[in-house]
Amino acid sequence: MAAADDLSLLQGTLDVLVLKTLAWGPKHGYAVARWIAETTDDDLQIEEGALYTALHRMEKRGWIESEWGLSDTGRRAKFYQLTRAGRQQLQLQTQRWTRYASAVFKVLQTA
Amino acid sequence: MPRIPHLRRVFRLDVLSPRVERDVDDELAFHLAETVTRLEARGLAPAVARAEAERRFGDLHRYRRELRAIDRGRAAAHRRADLREATVHDLRHALRGLRRNPGFTLAVVLTLALGIGANATMFGLVDRLILRDPPHVVAPGELRSVMLRYVFRGEPGINDVQSYPTLRDLRAGVPALSHLAGYGGAQPSLGRGVEAQPVRATIVTGDYFPLLGTRAELGRLLQPADDERGSAPVAVISHGFWQRHFGGDPDVVGRTLQLDQVTYTVVGVAPPGFVGLEQRRTPEVWLPFVPRAVAAGDTTALQEYGWQSLYVVGRLRPGASDAQAEAQSTVVFRSPRNPNADTTARALVRSVLPRAVLSAAEDESLPGDGRANARVAVLLAGVSLLVLLIACANVANLLLARALQRRREIAVRLALGVSRRRLALQLVTESLLLAAAGGLAALLVVHWGGLLVRHLLLGDVAWEGSPVDGRVLAFTAVATVLTGLLTGLVPALQASRPSLTSALRTGLRAGGGGGRHSRLRAALLVTQTVLSVVLLAGTGLFVRSLVRVGNERLGLDVDQVLVGTMRLRGLGYAPPRVEAMYREMAERVGAVPGVRGVALATALPFYSTSSITFRLPGRDSLPRVADGGPYINAVTPGYLRTVGTRLLRGRDFTDADRAGTAPVAIVNQAMAELYWPGESAIGQCIIVGDTEAPCTTVVGVMENARRQGIVEGTSLQYLVPLEQAPRFLRGRQLVARVDQGADLARVSAAVARAMQGVAADLPYADVFPMSDLLQGELRPWRMGAALFGAFGALALLLAAVGLYGVVAYSVSQRTQELGVRMALGAQAKDVRLLVLRQGVALAAAGAIVGGALALLLAPRVGDLLFETSPRDPVVFGGVVTTMLVVAVAACLAPAWRASRVDPAITMRAE
User: Fold this and answer.
1) Could you point out which of B243, B499, B722, B810 has its C-alpha 20 to 30 Å from the C-alpha of B680?
2) What percentage of chain B's residues is helix, strand, coil (to nearest 5)?
3) Phi, psi of B26 (to 5 degrees)
4) Do A69 and B1 touch (CB under 8 A)?
5) A35 neighbourhood in chain B, CB within 8 Å
6) Using CB atoms, which residue from A29, A49, A67 is nearest to B59?
7) pTM recorded for the entire structure
8) Beta carbons within 8 Å of A101's beta carbon, 6+ residues apart
9) What are the tens digits of pLDDT across the range B804-845?
10) Which residues on chain B are in Cβ contact (under 8 Å) with A71?
11) What is the distance between the alpha carbons of residues B628 and B713, in angstroms, rounded to a whole number?
12) What would the pLDDT profile of B173-218 be if each residue is shown by its tens digit?
């Protein structure tokens, strides 16, 4: 579980992860959490509540929008999907992450 | 998953907080339920699964709080965006509508521009004259002026200037006031000879600037050490004078100014806009009192209690009251040290703020000028407010008519589910938009109107800056918004609740729900007429006063007369030399092109007056008249012709009436009738001055002429030749009659040059039209007539437009009815009469109520009128007639249109 002082790092990371998750199509919060857990083999160990904070904050920013609908299990659930601004944001942050990761990787390689 | 994007936007329901909270709860509940289901499927017991789900989620309460806060913020942002969008939409809608009706738009904007503009103009004047604090004065509310009330021969009076010794005594004897200082106006001469010019100066005692707390813009201001015997003469100059006279020289401190006989060193520049405590003049220099008196050899000013020239002001000490200050000052005024002390004297201590006169407007004992100004200002503010109300009524009426025309459109939109609130908002948006356009146009009205009023009516007030300043702008903005709301609300309320079905069914035609609307419109219209009639009645009364003043025979013909004066006191000329110089001035002025006649006099009507011991041989006492006298004036031959006073009998003085020849006099008619009733005054003997003097023979009788003002009783006056004048009649004024049609300003300048050219060291000559002396007294009538006239005309115009609008609208509504009437045999004449009767009935109702109201109000301005009854029948008859004539004129066009209705067409439309 992430420590409180890692939160700012985690926040940016979470945002891009959630955006990426929604890139495949509308999902409710539970599905987002499951998708991240399964894709990362639970390596990240993200507190699920933090995922919801990220979802709502990004909705307020206009990157995603929400709609109530029915889940596969037939229950009422809140679905999120990317807006145009959200797609742009995803692209931007993906580039930034890739650059950052490759830079760190280069440094580590020289060791 | 079938979803319609933006569905919620279409059915935009307000996202209220309870809804936000429920959404968050539902969302979290779903998440936990799904997690529990998954964990149970893996074989966990329900309770364990639940605990594990909550553990994975984290602090449920904290997250719930966070999510709610985020969502509430989002909802608020949405609401704001929606409002913005709706407003933009409403504005576009309103703009489109207004563009489609340019006539309507123009009428409304003009009406509002005039209404708001008139008010803002008045506000600007009142603000400048009364409301505003004097600039650059610290805590002006604490400043008090000290005046003296006295009773003389049973008449109460006020002395607002005190002597220097009295000021000194007050400083010692009135602990309730600190920094007691005195100030007074003066107009010294800058330079000498032909180039000499007057400078507006304020003479101040040492504590004046410390009292005000003003900071210098450059250098320093005057301080107590500058105002002692032996102090070197120093001066503070105004920002404007610094720019004009010294070209804004940054090294002006230390430069010198030659004013009268004294050379002053400039020590500082006052901040721009600073005028001290004076409202009606903008001083150019401030000079210390004592060094000026010493330099002029005028030590009487420093010692004599009788030499009263200073307005006394001080700052109320913390904790002290006006009553204490008055009690302490009263003791000083009655002090035995003062040889002029008067046991009836009582001090009057009053705030120096101009607006203090507003609360004292009813205080009879205050010096006249401020009180009259305050009353006129309050009156004008009231009048302009009336005009704005008329404008509002008018615009409301026009908007209402428009809203009614759009009743069907509105009903359709209501049926489509647009909320009434939203609809009302739309109508108010439209009226606010109109008001904003009106407000902008009003600024033009304020600019030009303000300049006009300043120039025409308040020319002697020193104005600075444009009539449109920050405060006027703020006032205009507030008035605009209020007007927009006021005019928009009535139609909005009316139009947004029509009976839905009846409006849809009857469409645009008359009928459904029209009764209430037309009653409201008629009421607005009658109100408008009432207000117009009240204003017109005021106009009539003031115009009649002005006409009566104009026709009044003053015993003088001041229109083409110039007065020239020069202060020669203190220049060291011997009296014979002074006499000779004036003679030469008269000669030179007589040669100025455009001057037809010139004379010298020791006193002048409306300007100065003298009287000396006078008796008739063989009589112990003389009958008196209310306005006193007899008043003497010593003049050169031709004086009567020059000022336009008629010689009724006998002869004028000639050059042969000189010192040493037989003394002669001309008396006025009142004197002749009072002293020698039933006999001829010519040849009678009067004794002037010294009781031992020889007989002065009356050689002529002149008509009675005014002495001090237009409103005064007849006084006893007589003239003697200047060469035979008693020695102490020292004052000299020059009068010159100017050819009809000559340029008064140009001739004035030439006369001043001619006078100043007589000797190289003369100060400036003050040359002005004699009619200027009457301006102050004429102003209330002129101002009343002009402003009531302007507002009255405006109100009448607005009422006419309003009447036209109502009648024209009613004709368009009744087209069908009129068609039926004509089909049934009504003549065009009958229809015209029908329409006319409707409009005139409304106007007549307004005229009757307005006339009654004006009769009721008129006595309140009674004392501002001149020989005119506040219930003058000619004025009131004229006003009512005017109103009716205008009403008929306004109804003619709609009546004509009504009579052209084609019955066939209207019937078919059915």
Assistant:
1) B722
2) 55, 15, 30
3) -60, -45
4) yes
5) none
6) A49
7) 0.63
8) none
9) 877 877 777 777 778 888 888 888 888 888 888 888 888 899
10) 30, 34
11) 9
12) 999 999 999 999 888 889 888 788 889 999 999 999 999 999 999 9
Cα dihedral B746, B752, B755, B756 in deg (nearest 10): -130
Report strand pairing: B717-721 vs B631-635: parallel
Distant-in-sequence contacts of B552-556, Cβ < 8 A, 24+ apart: B552/B710, B552/B866, B552/B867, B553/B703, B554/B705, B554/B706, B554/B710, B555/B645, B555/B646, B555/B703, B555/B704, B555/B705, B555/B706, B556/B605, B556/B643, B556/B644, B556/B645, B556/B705, B556/B706, B556/B770
Interface test with A, best of B3, B30, B35, B64 (most A CBs within 10 A): B30
CB-based contact B311:B183 (threshold 8 Å): yes
As a whole number of angstroms, the distance between CA B522 and CA B400 comes to 11
Q: Show which of residues 37-56 on chain A sit within 8 Å of chain B, judged by CB atoms.
A: 47-50, 52-53, 56
Residue B334 is given by DSSP the state: T
Please give, rounded to a whole number of angstroms, the shortest distance from the CA of A23 to a CA of chain B. Answer: 16
What distance in Å separates the CA atoms of residue B119 and residue B75, rounded to the nearest whole number?
43
Burial class (CB in 10 A: 0-12, 13-18, 19+), B826: middle
Contact A49 B23 (CB under 8 A): no
Q: Inform me whether the C-beta atom of residue B80 falls under 8 Å from chain A C-beta atoms.
A: no
Backbone angles phi, psi at B411, to 5 degrees: -60, -40
Window 49-78 of B: residues touching A by CB (8 A cutoff) are 56-60, 62-63, 66-67, 70-71, 73-74, 77
Residue carrying the six token digits 């507003």: B358
Query: Residue B908 CA to chain centroid, in angstroms?
Result: 60
| B50-93: pLDDT as tens digits | 998 998 888 889 999 999 999 888 888 888 888 888 888 888 88
Nearest-Cα residue of chain B relative to residue A60: B74
**How far, in whole angstroms, is CA B734 from its chain's centroid?**
34
